[in-house]
Design a protein that fits this description.
This protein has helices at residues 13-37, 40-51, 55-82, 87-99, 102-112, 116-128, 132-208, 223-236. By secondary structure, the protein is mainly alpha-helical.
Length: 256
């Protein structure tokens, strides 16, 4: 008897997916709480150091911060979902992707000003980093739209590639069937030609092997043709075996 296979310790797929999503949501909530309570002042100092009170620099920095805070985590999360690795490894990768959203989370926490620390940081950013917050929102929204479009295009491309492969297989089968049909027709035509050649050869052999007479007639010449020939010979030679008029058969001379 075969030994029973050991059961896998990994949970079902739906449990792994639910755990991954729940863990990501919990980490996002924790990051938001930390961002709103502890890190707003630090992040405001970093941003004002980048921008230096220049509005154009604030727009550029905000766009880059918002776009990168969405695109990079989204790409990592997509790879974590598609990567065939243990669910714990994928959960860790998902946590790293959420950590990369920290700049955008801190910017939102400061803009909402849920605490007094966040309110002070908001005032500092409005003075030292003008237009940064709005540009960060715009960059994040644009990046989300681009990421969604990329996912849709990738899925459609894969679907189209699968359909093209299936269509190529169908066309190849159709072409192979057509070639087989043509080969059968050529073989049948060759067989018919061979049969016709053999029939013609047999007919020629029969004509060559006919004794006497004209081609296509069997047996010796007919009696009628023989009699006709003899009659012709008698007419052409009237003196043979005949007596002319006025000659005496006893004397052998002419009468007076």
């Amino acid at each position: 008897m075969s030994e029973p296979k050991p059961q896998s310790s990994a949970p079902p797929a739906w449990i792994r997916t639910l755990t991954t999503i729940s863990g990501a949501v919990i980490i996002a909530i924790v990051l938001f709480v930390l961002g709103s309570a502890l890190l707003p002042g630090w992040w405001a100092g970093v941003v004002t150091g980048w921008v230096g009170g220049v509005a154009s620099a604030g727009v550029l920095a905000g766009l880059l911060c918002g776009a990168l805070s969405v695109l990079v985590p989204a790409a990592i999360a997509f790879l974590a979902v598609r990567w065939r690795r243990p669910w714990r490894t994928r959960l860790i990768i998902g946590g790293v992707a959420l950590l990369l959203t920290l700049p955008l989370v801190l910017t939102i926490a400061i803009d909402t000003a849920a605490t007094s620390v966040a309110l002070d940081a908001r005032i500092d950013m409005e003075i030292g980093a003008p237009s940064f917050t709005g540009a960060a929102y715009g960059g994040a929204i644009g990046a989300a739209v681009v990421a969604t479009a990329a996912v849709v295009l990738v899925r459609r491309w894969r679907t189209s590639r699968t359909e093209v492969k299936a269509l190529r297989g169908t066309v190849a089968k159709s072409q192979e069937s057509e070639r087989a049909r043509m080969r059968r027709e050529e073989a049948a035509e060759e067989a018919r030609t061979q049969v016709a050649r053999e029939a013609a050869a047999r007919a020629r052999e029969r004509e060559r092997g006919t004794p006497g007479g004209r081609p296509g007639t069997d047996g010796p010449p007919s009696t009628d043709s023989t009699n006709s020939t003899n009659s012709t010979n008698s007419t052409d030679n009237p003196d043979d075996g005949s007596i002319s008029d006025g000659e005496d058969p006893g004397r052998g001379g002419r009468t007076t």
